[in-house]
Protein: Enoyl-CoA hydratase-related protein
Organism: Novosphingobium clariflavum
Amino acid sequence: MSYETILVEKKDNVTLITLNRPQALNALNSQVLADLIDAFAAFEADATQGCAVLTGSGEKAFAAGADIKEMSDKPSAEFYSQDFFAGWTSHVVKATRKPWIAAVNGFALGGGCELAMMADFIIASENAKFGQPEIKLGVAPGMGGSQRLTRAVGKSKAMDMCLTGRMMDAAEAERSGLVSRVVPLDQLLDEALKAASAIAGMPPLAAMMNKEMVNIAFETTLDAGLVMERRMFQVLTATEDKAEGMAAFVEKRPGVWKGK
Ligand code: CO8
């Protein structure tokens, strides 16, 4: 399947999705959203694929934001009536239950930072720059920036980023817990694909439930989260992959997973 604004490649059991509008620093317009919704749905439905990596083409940007040119003349009533930006959370985040990683190369600003934060974790190149500069356009984050950034880095730094619109470099992003690893740009894709391949080699139900559990920690109270965690653990103990995983450990051999 070929797309207008993204590239999709299957690398064994990992799907690599590349935002491909380098002339606009991979700015996110409606076509990018439509293409990503389709690509993530195909990844989710393909039983041979265990993890995805999302990155940006070129060395300069992961994505420099929602497409300002597309939005500049749009009437406010349309932003509301179309529930503009809603599709990102409902179709890209909620509908994708398998794990995926953002490999952030260069600018991740506004919607670009928000898209990276939709991933299960972020691996950044040393030249990565994160920011929520919407305030400078007279607006505010609309794809989760004020919410996911605050949960990721805490109130003080999220306020700093949203109110000043300044950029955070990769070292600060790692210190703040926004990204899990920082690597040189020329190693970014290898590192992200290696991590994705390790995840894709895990028992698939356990991978999905581990993802769901960590996300629950983001969204609920500790007590409710602990109950959910125990229930999911208990469900996993009934799977064939649990029996196989424990037998493989005892027999000192790699497990062979069925996703059952
Ligand atoms: N949307 C559309 N086009 C963009 C965007 C964008 N977000 N970012 C860059 N581009 C385009 C530029 O217009 C330029 O195109 P052209 O050559 O046709 O003029 C091309 O990409 C290269 O960009 P620059 O020449 O600006 O490259 P620089 O290296 O000089 O600067 C920056 C790089 C610093 C990343 C700069 O491009 C920049 O500041 N971009 C905008 C960053 C930004 O503000 N992002 C937030 C966008 S808003 C958002 O995501 C949430 C929704 C807010 C609603 C807004 C309603 C109006």
